[in-house]
Amino acid sequence: MFANKKNLKIAVGAVGLVVAGIVLFFVLKKKITVEPMVQKVSEDTLKLTDEAIKNIKLEKVFKGDFPEKLSLMGKISVPEDRTIVVQARISGRTDKVFVASGEVVAPGQPLASIFSADFAIAREEYLEALKDVQKSPNDEEAKHLFELSKRKLDALGVSTVDASKWTENSGKINELGGDNMIVRAPRGGALLSKTSAIGSLVNVGDPLFTIGDLSKVWFAGDIYPEDLNKVHKNQEVVIAANNDSVMLHGKVSFISPVIDPTSRTIKIRALMDNPGSQLRADMYVQGSIVLSTRIALVAPKNALVRLGDTVFCFKRIPGNQFKKVFVKAESESGDKISVSDGLVDGDEVVSEGGLLLNAALSDSGAGE
Q1: Which of 64, 152, 186, 296 has fewest C-beta within 10 Å?
Q2: Helix (H/G/I), strand (E/B), else coil: 287
Q3: What is the pLDDT of residues 173-196, one digit of tens each?
Q4: Which one is the CATH code of 38-65+295-362: 3.30.160.150, 1.10.3720.10, 2.40.420.20, 3.40.50.920?
């Protein structure tokens, strides 16, 4: 009997706990609400949770020096004094070509192998003179003939590196071309053009290769006559390389005295350093001439959202709120832009995520 009463109490207690749990569940379900990450506060303001703010990027607006620039398109070329044409110094036939157009070559690097009767004769004369001077080192006439044979090889363009390896008992004159003459790069740089081909006949003076040093390049741009009075020598020129991630600088060194009859523009040229050969020959790039510098309100260019004729951004206000403000964009410089109206010095603006916030603001269900 006692055991039955005890079991009854346990059963009643268990039922009571279950009922209490069910009641508590429904009470908490009514009271607990999940706060949305983005809430629409008004027609132009959103409130974001701390977690939502982590998904956007904020940058500060500041007042500082801002360059006034004249934008222009231009083309990259290799300065004339940094370009060399490798010409044939002998007549013969091209048997091998060791390089391809666009390749970067080092000073002294083999470019081609040429079979030439003139080279064979000069080589034999050199070996014979070398043999004589080795037998009679004090013979003045032998030494004179040896010097003449060396000069002849030099006139033919034979590298001293190759000639120093020859002996009167040599089988093949060199490891690359056998008995042929090796044409080597007189300087390092990019192979801008290649006219030499296997099997082609060459004459003295024929251009074989063009090598350009791209450590410095020319930027040649076009300006309109009405802008001519703004431009003068030694003004700074800025080129954006690698998708605007690197800015290269130079100075205006030449302003053409004539107007192009086709485009009705005036050519300007600037010499600039080209670290890592980021700018390539014949590349078209966007450049700008720095005309002056002024104090302006500067904002990140990515913060501005353009829809039709309107330009706006979202600035942060107290309480984790972000207000849509309309601004007037003036001029750009790299990843910055000068603005007026709607912003003040020190404002925090959304530089990544503005379009998403605008979509949330336009959503009538936001915040419900």
Answers
A1: 64
A2: strand
A3: 555 556 788 899 999 999 998 998
A4: 2.40.420.20
